[in-house]
Write a structure and sequence with these properties.
Number of domains: 2
Number of helices: 2
Structural class: mainly beta
Number of strands: 19
Strand content: 35-45%
Largest sheet: 10 strands, mixed
Distance between the termini: 37 Å
Radius of gyration: 23 Å
Helix content: 10-25%
Shape: flat
Strand order of the largest sheet: 5-6-2-8-10-12-18-14-17-16
Amino acid sequence: MRSQARAPWLWALILIAVGVVLLLDNFLLVDLDAADYWPFILVVLAVQLLLRGDIGLSWAAHTFGITRGSVRTGSIEVESGEVDVQLRALRSKSGRLVAGQYTARSRPALTVRNNQAHLVLRRGDTWPISLADWDLGLADDLPWDLLISSYLGRLELDLRDLPVRKAYIASGLGNIHLACPEYADDMLYARSSLGDVRISIPEDSRAVIHVQAGPFARVRVDTARFEEVEPGIYASVRLDAPHTIPKAADLHITASTTFGSIYLA
């Protein structure tokens, strides 16, 4: 794994200048009311957030890559808090298990046992003011288990080119966009309490989707692709036995929200 991080020189100069002015004020060499300059500090922090997606003093994100080695299966656990997460299959990264970028101080933790890799990223390991997104690419030639959660951050997972065994994706307030693989061994779960849940199914996949919508939630379905075979259960219209729950399907998905909207496409 490698990391690229250094403090921006402009921030260093700003901090030095502010420190010198405050020192002069402490020794009564200048007449300065520091409280008058808080609006300026807030403007600088806002510009920092707009330009770099972070208000920390280090670079917004660090790039990394982990070689695959003898690993045959993988699992990843992400607790992102208010940080957004993008996850997809690696492209043009031969020999890599995972690569991408992470928020400052949240270097992915890796353990390997019996040729199975387990990756962990936790928001609690970062500075509270570090808000850079996590962008993760996973090897597309080994099966993965996914456990990804946030309470505010947006979760965008493109699993179309990944072999997935099972996945559990949850957010408290953030939106979820799940682009499903063509096949999964187990149930895929996507839940947001207050945010929207968007499920995208590959054209050639046979899918059964269990929709759990609260009394204040809305369900939007592409009727050209799905039909409601039972209350709250939708199936691909291309399945051989229409108007029934199929006995065999490539994907079994549970989509749930309490106050947001569920989109099936």
